[in-house]
Specification:
- The chain has eleven helices and 13 strands.
- It has 358 residues and is of the alpha+beta class.
- The chain has one domain (5-357): Beta-lactamase (3-Layer(aba) Sandwich), CATH 3.40.710.
- The strands form three sheets. The protein has a nine-stranded antiparallel β-sheet with strand order 3-2-1-13-12-11-10-9-8, with helices on both faces. Strands 4-7 form a two-stranded antiparallel sheet. The chain has a two-stranded antiparallel ribbon with strand order 5-6.
- Helix 1 packs antiparallel against helix 11.
- The N and C termini lie close together (7 Å).
Length: 358
């Protein structure tokens, strides 16, 4: 891979021109690292964006949680064939039918709770600061019918990762936060990544995060960007609450895909992907999904990674399957459609990825 700093900078400049206050990027390969940034990290003060600032990583959290679960499988604490009911009796009417493996790759048919959570976030000024427990997040959809019989379809489900949150804690007797630190963040020396519990802010140095204003019905409203930095990310929990930096995220995927974290057979399980139905994922870049990992086919070949969207931030990390090369980009606005920034973000990122990995 030959890094073209001009191409990286052009993407970031385009994202800022499309409406993001700021954007950062990090590209790594065996030859070194290139970092770039554009725009501002703080609209009011005009503080410049930097590629090493902390931000909310959104659904990239799922990759960390999936690797943690697989590590627990490796040590015999869990099995991929364990059912939800084995660890969490009576939490779902159909808990005896859904396995840990199906929660990891979104094939369990457990309904997605995000639309219900999002309505509360925007319903009142205090909505973004509510403290949610994983059990409450599951309860939002526990009485709803399954999307499909377990194993017969695919549908993105934050609820599934709330269930995994509780399974990890039931199996280990510790908190998810402790287990992530002990099993992943510590060994991989990801010192600037954290899993906040009911913490409203982001540790410094960090970027502010902004969102288009939405109605309680999730319709985009006219008006200036809303500073959404301060929020209680417990509503995202194991599905999206982590705070990180681009360098830690690329380091995580490099370590995992490079074989430093999981036994070979469990890494193969993680990377066994299933087709993703069109338009069924919040950030429509990926065509296949494994256990907490997304796969995209490009003219440069298959690339692996994940996307992260949470009010205030959008991010994507892609890697070659061997973990040898990574591309990570973040912007400090938005989350998902109908956000008009999503399309240029996805399009620009894909073009840059194809160029860098070819």
């Amino acid at each position: 891979m030959r890094i073209d700093p001009g191409e990286v900078q052009r993407l970031l400049d385009q994202l800022v021109a499309s409406g993001a206050p700021g954007a950062g990027a990090r590209v790594e390969d065996e030859g070194g690292t290139h970092q770039a940034a554009a725009g501002v990290a703080h609209i009011r003060t005009g503080r410049a964006m930097r590629s090493d600032l902390r931000f909310r990583a959104g659904s990239l959290t799922k990759s960390f949680v999936a690797v943690l679960v697989l590590k627990l499988v490796a040590e015999g604490t869990l099995s991929l064939s364990d059912t939800v009911a084995q660890w969490l009796p009576r939490i779902l009417p159909y808990g005896g039918e859904v396995t840990v493996a199906q929660l990891l790759n979104h094939t369990g048919g457990v309904p997605h709770n995000a639309p219900l959570v999002w309505r509360e976030l925007w319903a009142t000024a205090a909505g973004r600061f509510r403290a949610w427990t994983p059990r409450q997040l599951v309860a939002l959809v526990a009485d709803r019918p399954q999307d499909f019989p377990p194993g017969s379809g695919w549908a993105y489900s934050n609820t599934g990762y709330a269930l995994l949150h509780m399974v990890v804690e039931a199996a280990t007797g510790g908190t998810l936060r402790r287990e992530l630190s002990r099993q992943i963040l510590g060994p991989l020396r990801l010192s600037r990544t954290s899993f906040p519990v009911n913490a409203r802010g982001i540790p410094s140095p960090s970027s502010r995060g902004y969102s288009l204003p939405l109605s309680p019905q999730l319709e985009v409203l006219d008006g200036p960007l809303v500073d959404f930095t301060a929020q209680n990310p417990s509503y995202a929990g194991a599905a999206g609450a982590m705070v990180s930096v681009l360098g830690d995220l690329t380091g995580f995927f490099r370590g995992v895909l490079g074989g430093q974290v999981l036994p070979r057979h469990l890494l193969a399980e993680m990377l066994t992907t299933v087709p993703v139905p069109p338009a069924s994922i919040p950030l429509p870049l990926f065509e296949r999904y494994g256990m907490g990992i997304m796969e995209v086919e490009t003219p440069a070949g298959s690339l692996l990674g994940h996307a992260g969207g949470i009010p205030g931030f959008l991010s994507i990390v892609l890697s070659t399957p061997d973990g040898g090369r990574q591309l990570a980009v973040m912007v400090n606005v938005g989350d998902r459609p109908p956000d008009p920034l999503v399309e240029p973000f996805i399009h620009g990122f894909r073009e840059l990825a194809v160029g860098l990995f070819s």
